[in-house]
Amino acid sequence: MPDLVHRHVAGGIAVLEIANPPANLISAPVRSALSAALAETLEDPGIDVLLIVAAGRDFCTGLDLPQPRGFAARGEREAPTLSALCAEIEAATKPVVAAIQGQVFSSGAELALAAHYRLAGAGAQIAFPEVRVGLSPRGGSTQRLPRLLGADPALDLLLGGRPVTVRRPPARALFDAVVAEDLRGAALRFCAPLQEAGSGPRPSAAAQAGLRDPVGYQAAIARRRAQLAGHPEAARHAILDCVEAAQLLPFEAGLAREADACLELAGSDQALAMRQIFLAERRLLAGAAQDAAHLPEEVRIAVLGGGPLATEIVICALKHGIAVNWGTRDPSRLRAGMNEVTAALTAQKARGAVTEADLRVMLDRLKLGESHKMAEGIHAAIIAARGQGAVPLPPGAPRFKAFPDPVAQVDLRFAPPVTHANFAEVLVGPGADPEAVQFARALVRRMGKLPLVVATRGDAVTDRMMMTLQAAADALVDLGEDPFAIDAAVRGLDWPRAPFEMRDIAGLADGAGRPRPEGARNWSALVLQTGRQGLATGRGFYLHREEGRVPDPAVRKLIDDMRPPAPQPRDLDALAECLMTALANAGARLLADRAVARSDDIDLAMHLGLGFPRWRGGPMMAADRAGLFHVKRILDSVDHPDRRLWEPHPIWADLVKNGRRFADLGA
């Protein structure tokens, strides 16, 4: 028997242990090995109960992604599918118990649902993350979960896609027992009464607890469908349809519906884009894990400076178990910030995210004082405001600026809001110390964020891409396009970064000094000259009223008087294509400058740092999908004086000539 599954027999109980480190991925070889072990064990007359466990800290943390139609390797084709393996487990003629520890995701979670009985360690978490890669589950969980839990709890798990604790609803109802320690021993003790009583299988397919209220079930489906109306992600609608089918169709027909949905989704543009984002996330996680040893278990940092950025960094660090010395030169700003920190952490307690004891521990980790004093006895300092750069630090303690500024060594740029966003850029300047880079990456990860390393002298990837979006929007207005149509085109991408609306929110003065090339205008400066300042005064590009924003016709006339409208205005799709093309050209420059290693780094920064929709991937994926020759022709067609923005970077011609894509760079 392959080493991927170990078989131990003790007193009529067969223990089948999955051993596929590091993630215990239920891959094709594991499925083959487990299927063979299951068949062999069921034929053994001396075995009464089967216990499925996994080696290591976690039961299964991997996401075994299905291949699009026609791309499966030979081993994948020869192994039982996940659905077939789960059916074998569920159809077993002897009771099958699954005991899970740590994290159990995706195919591991589906395998556990197929078992007749389930136990979990108290710290276990379960997740069905397929929705995050544009897929539906493929092992039967859209049919088993509703039968066990009902429609609403099943959809909470399937549409949430994130790990949830097994100790609380909805996951708690899936487990016969949650044990605090010695899970393996507790599972063997659980098996003994089943053996003694001659208990038979208890297939989830036959469960009726979740189907007992058919009217309530359909009401839940209708409510969720109304909530999803207009949602762009196809996987969410497919999962909802499958859960509805669990009530309406026989179990086997429901499984077939699920399999069809997964197969249809697997080759879709959405799934391919979301898969690439997922793989980029996983790559950054793996890189950060290698740097974890560079951070002490008990780490204390200084946050120097007052204001909103410093406050958010302090809150984030405390929430993730990092001790903080907060120093400023203005005691009043420190007191105001402390009130915000206390309020934010207390709100966490009110939501049940932390206990009273957790709250006390977090606040006990926080020290306040003058900057020089707070810089003593720390492992690193995050400079959150100007005027703190000269504060001396202990020998060897790195200093990271967190605000826009030229980068000489290593700095950080946190995606806003720092308290909730899970992304930060580690900016590596020409004089960077490699150990400081490793420390920064490990610190960002400890703060619950994905760290993207960027080689730069100043701009973060997100800064560069936002500047490009704004410059491209101004350029299109120069060419006669309507600013409100440009905003509508961006909203049509499901991207909440409509450039002229964003200017109103920030205040028009923020962009009024931005230089433009000869022959181009700064439209923010023009509108600002009329007394319109943006959202704060109720007038900018838009009129901001209680009922919402509306385009200001006076602004449209002002712009049209300065340049004639386009004789043949681009439609919204063409405007969006122009903007995405400009972003891809900026990304090409980042790749050519070796600011980032791969094109999906740029797309990931767009998603996590700028809110670009996950299901669209990003401008680099979009360019690859449309064809680089086609996208280059769009750049060539834009006749505008800002040539750095619109002239295709030389890397385009090289890639087109050699039949390559952006995704091939750095792969």
UniProtKB/TrEMBL annotation:
<protein>
    <submittedName>
        <fullName>3-hydroxyacyl-CoA dehydrogenase</fullName>
    </submittedName>
</protein>
<feature type="domain" description="3-hydroxyacyl-CoA dehydrogenase NAD binding">
    <location>
        <begin position="301"/>
        <end position="376"/>
    </location>
</feature>
<dbReference type="InterPro" id="IPR006176">
    <property type="entry name" value="3-OHacyl-CoA_DH_NAD-bd"/>
</dbReference>
<dbReference type="GO" id="GO:0003857">
    <property type="term" value="F:(3S)-3-hydroxyacyl-CoA dehydrogenase (NAD+) activity"/>
</dbReference>
<keyword id="KW-0413">Isomerase</keyword>
<dbReference type="InterPro" id="IPR008927">
    <property type="entry name" value="6-PGluconate_DH-like_C_sf"/>
</dbReference>
<dbReference type="InterPro" id="IPR029045">
    <property type="entry name" value="ClpP/crotonase-like_dom_sf"/>
</dbReference>
<dbReference type="GO" id="GO:0006635">
    <property type="term" value="P:fatty acid beta-oxidation"/>
</dbReference>
<dbReference type="GO" id="GO:0016853">
    <property type="term" value="F:isomerase activity"/>
</dbReference>
<dbReference type="GO" id="GO:0070403">
    <property type="term" value="F:NAD+ binding"/>
</dbReference>
<dbReference type="InterPro" id="IPR036291">
    <property type="entry name" value="NAD(P)-bd_dom_sf"/>
</dbReference>
<dbReference type="GO" id="GO:0016829">
    <property type="term" value="F:lyase activity"/>
</dbReference>
<dbReference type="Pfam" id="PF00378">
    <property type="entry name" value="ECH_1"/>
</dbReference>
<dbReference type="Pfam" id="PF02737">
    <property type="entry name" value="3HCDH_N"/>
</dbReference>
<dbReference type="InterPro" id="IPR001753">
    <property type="entry name" value="Enoyl-CoA_hydra/iso"/>
</dbReference>
<keyword id="KW-0456">Lyase</keyword>
<keyword id="KW-0511">Multifunctional enzyme</keyword>
